[in-house]
Amino acid sequence: MNPNRKPIIAGNWKMYKTAAEAVALVNELKRAVADVKESSVEIVVCPPFTALAAVGPVLANSNVKLGAQNVHWEKEGAFTGEIAPAMLKEHGVRYAIVGHSERRQFFGETDAGVNKRAKAALANGLRPIVCVGEMLAEREAGQTSAVVASQVRGCLAGFTQDEMLATVIAYEPVWAIGTGKTATPEQAQEVHALIRKLLGEWFGGDVASQVRIQYGGSVKPGNASALLGQPDIDGALVGGASLKAADFAGIIRGVL
Which of 8-12, 28-32, 216-220, 229-233 has the lowest average pLDDT? Predict the structure, then answer.
C-alpha cells in the first residue's frame, strides 16, 4: 500500500441477509471496529437493496459507510428490477459496486453498461467501485493483461480526471471469487501495477498515483496482510468473509 492512498475495505454481501439479520451484523461489526480511525482506513458494507433502509440509520455517524451492489444509469423509468441513484442516496448510500463478475456472468452486463452505471453514480454524488478481472481460461491462455486492459478501458471510457479520482477500481480474478483460490500477492500486484500504468497513460501520473485499486477474490484474515502489503493494492473487496463481523474486522486490521 502507498501511504498517500487511504486503504478501502468493502464488504459485498451479495444475496445474503434479511433486513433484521443485516442490522444485527452491522451492529456487531460496529463494535468490532469501534477503535479503528477513519483516517487510517475506509470501511464500507454493501448489503442487499432490501436492507439499505434498515442499515442506513444504524451506520449514520459511525466509521462504517454504506454501499450498494449495483446502480442503474437512468434517474427513473421502466426498468424492472433496477435501482436508481437517488433511491440509494435516500438511504445514505455513498458507494456503488458496478460490473461485478457475477453481474457480467449471470446477467449479461457489459463494459459499456458498466461505464454508464459508473458515470451515473458519479453524476449523482456516489462513488463507483468498478470491478474488472479475467476468467481462469483467460489466465491460463496468457490473456490476463489484454482482458483486464480491455475491461478497464471500456469501463472508464470518457471519464474526466475528477471522475477518475472519485472512482475505486476492484481487480477480482473471476477464478478466485468464492472458490477458496486466491491470487498470490505477486500475481495480484502484477495486475494492479498494470492497471495503475494504464491509468497513468490515460489520466496522467498524478491521477494514477491517487486512484485506489482494491483486490477481491477469497480475501480472508489469514491472507489479507500479505495481499494488502503490496505497493499497488489499496484495499479489498470482500465477499464471504464480510458476512462474519470477526473475519471482516480481521481483514480491516490487516491494513493497520
Answer: 216-220
What phi and psi, each to the nearest 5 degrees, are found at residue 171? -90, 115
So which residues are the catalytic ones?
100, 172
Residue 174 pLDDT exceeds 80: yes
Q: Provide the whole-model pTM.
A: 0.97
CATH T-level assignment (fold) for domain 8-253: TIM Barrel (3.20.20)
**Domain spans, the chain:** 8-253
What is the SS3 assignment for 20-85?
HHHHHHHHHHHHHCCCCCCCCCEEEEECCHHHHHHHHHHHCCCCEEEEECCCCCCCCCCCCCCCCH
